[in-house]
Task: inverse folding
């Protein structure tokens, strides 16, 4: 493997992406809203409801939801009543949303890097370089992976600060990150870009352009949405065990997708029409 | 591609002619191991493109039909990334990029994004990129398309210098028949993926251009008599002779008929001052071949 060539492709892809407002806007805005603004809303919302003199029926509903999951109820038992709402939202409900970020970033960058490059007709010159198909595949995967992890880790740091700051008046201590989140960050998040990239490699071979690939490949977040709904419906919750198993499944899927992708990755197929 | 078989010598400027869709770009892709053939074999610089693609591509440079530049990056970034991809020694990268940007008159705008460049500037930058690693074999797909006459002349000089001065091989796909005639040692004409002609421009014109335009200058008083003689040779002289600029312009069936026509004129006491055949060119070869093919269809 020619590391210099691989890093040249990564450098090129990341530089090109950083110059593309259409790609950068969702990459910056989505984590900003989710990891910085949302924690404040979560903390301020019940106060606003109380301030308006409305009965916090929604808060009662959440309590009912928690009661349906004894393990979660046990985990939350150590918190005061006024803290449970905050912990439930900031720790458990936000966990699956957090997973969308690396998946989305990887998908968007892969769509730009494969289908976008085909659309801009910049792929052909790259294919005439001495890089092997495997080096190109690794480089293209690495660009998306590096960017997705960078966004996820920066997002996590921002979220740790925002969540603790927003909840300080209620919690009076640094309560976040929890063990479950640390497992998620160390085990699940690094696996997620592979899922988005693996799907996008397959989609991009057929897609005509960035938008086309992004729309089809965007469907990769649907399983994450199932986790959001599953937790909102009280069917399951993000425990350490579930997060570990989730990571295991994603790593296995990564392995399968990368194996399939690298087998079918031929430079000639990237030329397009 | 269908049954294409050809050899190109080292240091040769080889022209690859054909209409759009004839298979020129496909051939370049095949010869660089970018796509796989369904059958047949190739050796380029002694290597099999399918087996030794990366090693081969390190020794070839390709100017693609579209400049294929990352328009969101600067010219400098584009070249420095490709210097890494082609494995240009790190210590030489800066100098080589500067030299090429200077050579192609792009140095002043090296730090600007390529998206703001004119078509000709992008083409020059793409050519600089193709030369970055000093390839032994250069594939040029419409190298001078989009260039102004001065830039095109500069590129043609460069092509000649690379082949004649540095013994590098140039494989040029082109629609520009005048350029091919001027530059190429040999040309191949491709039609719907098949090789229909191969040889030096002179060989091809001799082989394919059957009619020859000849200018005959005679004593002005003898023009009517000359016309009479020429009209009496319908098997050699085709069509009606014309008379632009005092001389007679006639079309004869082939080069070998010139002495016969001249002998007839002399036998009829015509004082011939000058008889000069107009050299046939590749353009005529190309159209003859194209007409033949279309006729067959």
Result:
């Amino acid at each position: 493997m020619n590391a210099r060539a691989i890093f040249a492709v990564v450098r090129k892809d990341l530089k090109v992406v950083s110059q593309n407002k259409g790609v950068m806007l969702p990459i910056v805005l989505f984590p900003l809203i989710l990891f910085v603004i949302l924690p404040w809303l979560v903390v301020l919302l019940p106060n606003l409801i109380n301030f308006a003199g409305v009965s916090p029926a929604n808060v009662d509903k959440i309590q009912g939801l928690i009661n349906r999951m004894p393990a979660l109820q046990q985990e939350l038992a150590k918190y005061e009543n006024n803290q449970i709402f905050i912990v439930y939202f900031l720790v458990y409900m936000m966990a699956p949303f957090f997973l969308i970020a690396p998946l989305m970033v990887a998908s968007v960058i892969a769509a730009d890097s494969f289908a976008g490059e085909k659309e801009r007709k910049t792929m052909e010159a790259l294919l005439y370089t001495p890089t092997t198909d495997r080096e190109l595949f690794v480089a293209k995967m690495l660009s998306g992976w590096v960017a997705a992890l960078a966004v996820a880790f920066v997002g996590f740091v921002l979220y740790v600060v925002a969540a603790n700051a927003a909840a300080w008046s209620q919690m009076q201590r640094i309560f976040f990150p929890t063990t479950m989140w640390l497992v998620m960050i160390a085990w699940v998040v690094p696996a997620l870009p592979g899922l988005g990239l693996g799907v996008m490699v397959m989609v991009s071979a057929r897609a005509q352009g960035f938008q086309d690939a992004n729309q089809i490949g965007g469907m990769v977040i649907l399983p994450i949405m199932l986790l959001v709904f599953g937790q909102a419906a009280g069917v399951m919750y993000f425990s350490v065990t579930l997060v570990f198993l989730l990571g295991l499944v994603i790593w296995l899927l990564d392995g399968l997708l990368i194996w399939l992708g690298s087998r079918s990755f031929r430079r000639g197929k990237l030329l397009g029409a | 591609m269908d049954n294409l078989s050809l050899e190109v010598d080292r240091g040769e400027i080889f022209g690859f002619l054909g209409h759009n869709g004839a298979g020129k770009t496909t051939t370049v892709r095949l010869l660089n191991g970018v796509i796989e053939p369904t059958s047949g074999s190739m050796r380029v610089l002694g290597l099999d493109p399918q087996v030794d693609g990366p090693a081969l591509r390190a020794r070839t440079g390709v100017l693609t039909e579209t400049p294929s530049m990352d328009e969101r990056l600067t010219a400098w970034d584009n070249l420095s990334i490709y210097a890494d991809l082609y494995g240009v020694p790190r210590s030489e990268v800066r100098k080589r990029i500067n030299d090429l940007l200077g050579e192609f008159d792009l140095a002043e705008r090296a730090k600007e994004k390529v998206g703001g460049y004119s078509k000709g500037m992008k083409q020059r930058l793409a050519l600089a990129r193709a030369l970055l690693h000093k390839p032994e074999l250069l594939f040029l797909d419409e190298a001078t398309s989009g260039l102004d006459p001065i830039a095109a002349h500069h590129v043609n000089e460069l092509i000649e210098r690379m082949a004649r001065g540095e013994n590098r091989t140039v494989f040029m796909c082109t629609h520009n028949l005048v350029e091919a005639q001027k530059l190429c040692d040999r040309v191949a004409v491709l039609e719907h993926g098949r090789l229909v002609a191969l040889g030096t421009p002179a060989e091809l014109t001799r082989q394919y251009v059957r009619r020859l335009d000849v200018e005959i200058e005679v004593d002005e008083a003898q023009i009517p008599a000359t016309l009479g003689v020429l009209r009496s040779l319908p098997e050699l002289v085709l069509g009606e002779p014309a008379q632009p600029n005092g001389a007679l312009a006639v079309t004869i069936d082939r080069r070998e008929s010139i002495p016969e026509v001249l002998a007839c004129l002399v036998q009829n006491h015509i004082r011939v001052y000058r008889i000069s055949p107009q050299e046939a060119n590749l353009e005529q070869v190309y159209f003859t071949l194209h007409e033949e093919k279309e006729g067959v269809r």
